[in-house]
Structures are given as C-alpha cells and as structure tokens.
Automatic annotation (TrEMBL):
It comes from the Eukaryota. This is Pre-rRNA-processing protein TSR2 homolog. Belongs to the TSR2 family. GO terms for biological process: rRNA processing. Transmembrane segments: none annotated. The keyword Secreted does not apply. Residues 121-185 are annotated as: Disordered. Residues 133-147 have a biased composition (Acidic residues).
Length: 185
C-alpha cells in the first residue's frame, strides 16, 4: 500500500488519539500516575510513537502492533496489560490505518466521532477494594450536618466524570512494583 498523504496522516493520528484516549488501561495508568509525574505527556507521546510506527513499517500485522503497544506500556507506565483489551486496541488502530490507506476517510471520521462520544461519557477509574471501614465512612457521609472524624479528606472527584470499570477487570499490585490489569476469573 502507498504511504499516507499529510492530510491522511493527520486523520490517522487523530484516530490513534481517539483509540488510546478511550482505552481504560491507559487512562487508569495516566490517572494514577503509573508513568510518573509526566504520565499525561507520555500518553500524548504514545499517539505520535504509534502513528510513526505505522509510517515507518510496511504491512504491519496486528500481533506486531500489539507487541509495540505492550512494549510502550511496560516501559513508560510499568504496566503489563493482561485484561484482553490489547488485541482490541491493536485491531482498531490497524483497521483505521488500512481505511486511511484505502481512502475510506469518512469511515475513519465516523469511528473517531463514536470514540469521542464514548470518551465524553466518562473516563474509566480504578476503584479500591471495599474494606469494613468503608461502611463507617459511608455512615459519616450520610449525616451531612455532622463532622466525620474518619480521617483526612481525599481529593474530590466529579461523579459525572467517573465511569466504573466493567466487573470483569481488576487491578493487582505485584511484589516487584508492576501493576497487572487482568480479567477476573
């Protein structure tokens, strides 16, 4: 296939951005600072790196794209993706690249718009496991007029901007400092 023109390359870059911005694993890594102080910048850089990977390599296979994204997540966010979402992300990006090459720009724009709508519905958030102390905190929250001595107040979160993870994913901290995101069995 022929290389992408500059306008098509920009559209593909927009498509990669839309896919990565709606990928819960990456958003959890960014929101929780798995990539350090520059997690958001690393996520933005990933868009350029992935787009450049496609431009520099001919006839990429989905497995190669999966390996590349997995490598980026390991190196930049200390995260091993094991929730089954990596093949889906790689497939979306590969399909959009092929559509850009074939001149199906309307299809790509439509998919980008769908992903933007999905993104505006809310970002994925990792939620900590519930402990018995959480019940006491809940009682304190219910009594609006009373002060709660339950501990320091954490950061506030706009509930409209939070989307719960599907029940089939979980997040575990490994002994070696890596975070493993995987499906519940």
């Amino acid at each position: 296939m022929a290389p992408l023109t500059s306008s098509t390359r920009e559209l593909f870059s927009e498509a990669v951005r839309a896919v990565l911005e709606t990928w819960p694993v990456l958003q959890i890594a960014v929101d929780n600072g798995f990539g350090g102080a520059y997690s958001q910048q690393k996520a933005e850089w990933m868009v350029d790196a992935l787009q450049q990977y496609f431009n520099d390599n001919d006839e990429l296979l989905q497995d190669e794209v999966e390996d590349f994204i997995s490598h980026l997540m390991n190196n930049e966010f200390d995260t091993m993706v094991d929730d089954g979402s990596l093949p889906q992300v790689a497939q979306k990006v590969c399909v959009m690249f092929q559509q850009c090459q074939q001149g199906k720009l309307t299809d790509v724009r439509e998919q980008i718009n769908q992903l933007i709508l999905k993104k505006s519905a809310g970002r994925a958030k990792a939620t900590p496991a519930k402990t018995p102390d959480d019940d006491e905190d809940k009682e304190c929250e219910d009594e609006e007029a009373m002060d709660c001595d339950g501990g320091a107040e954490g950061p506030s979160v706009d509930s409209a901007a939070v989307m719960e993870l599907p029940q089939d994913t979980s997040q575990e901290e490994q002994d070696d400092g890596w975070t493993l995101v995987s499906r519940k069995k």
